[in-house]
Amino acid sequence: MRKCSIRLLLLFVFPLVIPCSLCLAQDDASLWSEACAKADAGDLTGGASLLTRLITDFPSSPKAPGAQLKLAYIKVKTSPDATQELLDAFSLVRTKYASSPEAGTALARIGFLHSKNDAAQAIADFTAFLKDYPVHPHAPNVQRTLGSLYLRSLDLDKAEAAFDAVKEIPNAPLAVVEEANMQSGFVKMMRFYKSRDKANLTSAISAFDGLSAAADVRIRAKSKLGTAEALLLLGKGAEAHEKYKAAAQTYSDQPYFKGLALYGAGICSQDIGKPEEAASEFSAFLDSQAGVTLAEKDASWRAVSLGSIGSFAQMAVQKDGSFDKIPASGIVPKAAYLWGECLYTAGKYKEAEKQLSAVVAAFPGTESAESATNAIARCRMAMGGER
Hints:
By secondary structure, the chain is an all-alpha fold. The protein contains 20 helices and no strands. Helix 4 packs antiparallel against helix 5 and helix 9 packs antiparallel against helix 10 (174-195). Mean pLDDT is 88; it is low at 1-25 and 310-324.
């Protein structure tokens, strides 16, 4: 009777124990879901721990490549400046899961990381990516970025070919295609600067004006400014001036593009012989920058310029401290000098001298300061030696 009781007890106990022990185990799908939920909620440490557990406990799981890739993305958030660690993290995805789609994504990210300060390696990475993953979801953006790298290195033929190839990629997002078309316009502008063949300017305008109304505001702004610059170079200063003025109004809530438009309008007014209007537009550009002194306004404009570029480019600028990679980031000294020069041309010598002296004081040793010094001498001669 006692044995029978024990047997019955075990029959009652095991059905209770076994389900409880099963509930302590997690399968790969639930680990993945919980890890993603934690990471998305900001618990990166907790998410990373679960992803590592998934990879360890279920090395053959279809979720394992995605888990390894997500660990690399978490590393991007926790250590954004640790470039080598990030390269190692994405390289691990390619090493462990070479035949997975995630390996392609990892290679694209490796290329973007290299593009910060090693253009040649980034070009090699992107070329390999496009060969192995021609229809990958990242292919359009990789192709466009490849064109940008070629443009940066002034390899205009390869840049144009890369931008043209974007539209040939199946299901390429419209935003990426239109950005490639816009950048193709800038390739044609660069061809003009190299050859002085004005046919390139006409081609550039066609590229800039071919965007749809749905294009991203940043792309539309760059295209409108590109059209205005091309018109100015074609000798159509009045038409270019209208384009710049319209852009300044249209993008009044975009400090970088508004600033470029105001500066461009001043250049056009000066070009078509309207020095007082030009002086007013250079003044408006400077007034739109935060700060009281010219040095403060220069710093403000550089900060605005930095915010206009992508995150990888920002990191490159912050790393080497050079703003040379940002178009027009140093135009405050030039605008301040041109304001004084236009006042001189308008016969307002006293005002011109005051403005030009401020340039010399704010930016000693620069080209703008040297030009301002010479202009001050002309002002004093015009005033009969007055000071």
